[in-house]
Amino acid sequence: MKYIKQSAVILGITWVGEWMSETLPLPVPAGVYGLFLMLILFCIGVLRVEQVEEAGNFLLDIMPVLFVPAAVGLMESYEQIQMVLAPMMVICVVSTIVVMVVTGKVADGIMGRKDKGKRGKKA
Predict the structure, then answer these.
(1) I want to staple 30 with a disulfide (CB 3.0 to 4.6 A). Which of 18, 20, 81, 94 is the partner?
(2) pTM
């Protein structure tokens, strides 16, 4: 019963995101609206992580399966994307490396600030 309730909360937030995407005249995907809405609900304390944790973990566990339809769609449209396949692959590899480097630098910077703060308090 707990999984049904948690899934209903996640689904409800997703539906509100869909409604916001249809209603508001901004070019923002519904998923982004839903994520921001969930973040706001977490920040103001209306929703706690424990209220959606198990259902969220389940969705994370099955995430690879959710990409199968998209992969099949790409395989079916191979002839249309064949001409741009090489540039697309280069863009994917380069952007992945850039995201990894930037994420690592930001994490190092945040961890470095925490370390400086701890050393400053001890001195």
Answers:
(1) 18
(2) 0.64
